[in-house]
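I have been asked to look over a protein record a colleague put together. Alongside the sequence sits a line of tokens, each denoting a local backbone shape. Please read both lines and tell me whether the tokens look consistent with the sequence. I do not need a full report, just your reasoning and any doubts. I have pasted the whole thing underneath without changing anything.
>
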Amino acid sequence: MSAYTTFVFNAIGTGWRLETDQPLSEASRHQIRALAEDFDRVWSRFRADSLITRVATAERGGRFEFPVRDVRLLDLYDRLAVATGGAVDPLVGRDLELLGYDTTYSLVPDETAVRGRRARDAWCSALRRHGATVMTDRPMVIDVGAAGKGHLVDLITQSLVDVGIDSFVVNGSGDLRHRGPGDYVVGLEHPTLRGRVIGTVPLRNSALCASSTTRRAWGEGLHHVLDGRTGCPVSAVVASWVIAADTMTADGLATALFVSEPADLSEFEFSWVRMLADGRVQWSNNFAGELFLGLQIPRH
């Protein structure tokens, strides 16, 4: 983008940066902030007034109406849960709490509860859903960290399109959505070497999302990427990068690559790179970027 204006704000606990080919009106900025605030009021498990907290504290369960705009997010979780055999599951929220990533950010695991946790709710069987309506029969802690931020990026993207913005980059703390002519070249940040990249990739009318076990870590082996089948943090993969047509899908698949083989995700259209715990790198045949590492595994 040769000329652009910038709008920077904070929402859902992180920083956002919008680069647009024409200035955003104050009304548009207000609308974007309001959209992000409403999204947080629905999906944040750290807010006492959120819909997710109501689900988590409903002693006998209940019937909960989510915004129609978020049905696509719920649908994606249905698909990811099936494709990964339950490894991607938004009901890992309770496991995250027990590990210390709770509403007070205690960052102290309840080791007794973790060891004693045997019964684990599964997204595909523990609740019932019809469109935007979710029905439960007991408290359930939902965490949409795997794809929620990407979904919000897409919602903000649509709001820009609706007011006639033709060329832009929406950056939700590393979750990127580009629209416009020309390529927007992005560096793939190394998960452990600050300021280093393992490669670059050109974006054009597409999205890029990255995930790493080092970005939200609070102790030895404690981080936010869990395997929904075990409730435990993953260890074999340390970082992933996904390019897809929309940010929500890229975000969800970036998490799925930690717990599944890429072949299991063949129903989705995307390209990808991931780094294993020993530092080796895997990437898809259709990855259009350039990698700088010398230690690599053949393309998949």
The CA atoms of residues 46 and 103 lie 5 Å apart. The two ends are 32 Å apart (CA to CA). The longest strand covers residues 237-244.
